[in-house]
Specification:
- The protein is α+β, with helices and mostly antiparallel strands and 78 residues long.
- The chain has one domain (5-77).
- It has 3 helices and 2 strands, in the order E-E-H-H-H.
- It has a two-stranded antiparallel sheet with strand order 1-2.
- Strand 1 (5-13) and strand 2 form a beta hairpin.
Amino acid sequence: MANADFREYTLFCPVCNVNFKQLIVLHKLPKSFDVDSALAGILADAVQRHDHKAYQDAQAQKIKDGADPQKLDEAQRS
């Protein structure tokens, strides 16, 4: 089995004013294939499909609950 090629892109949502990461898995592509130009449209579409309302609601809930984001991250890891 061949190893898959993973690429991580950091995208910016101007509506939410936040960066988020998108992981793309590339598998079995010809060597002459230009990945960056092919993914440009896909990544732009990912920014448009980002769920602004859900993100903003989650941020508001964190502030309302008085939750510390760092403590939440530590709790999720364990």
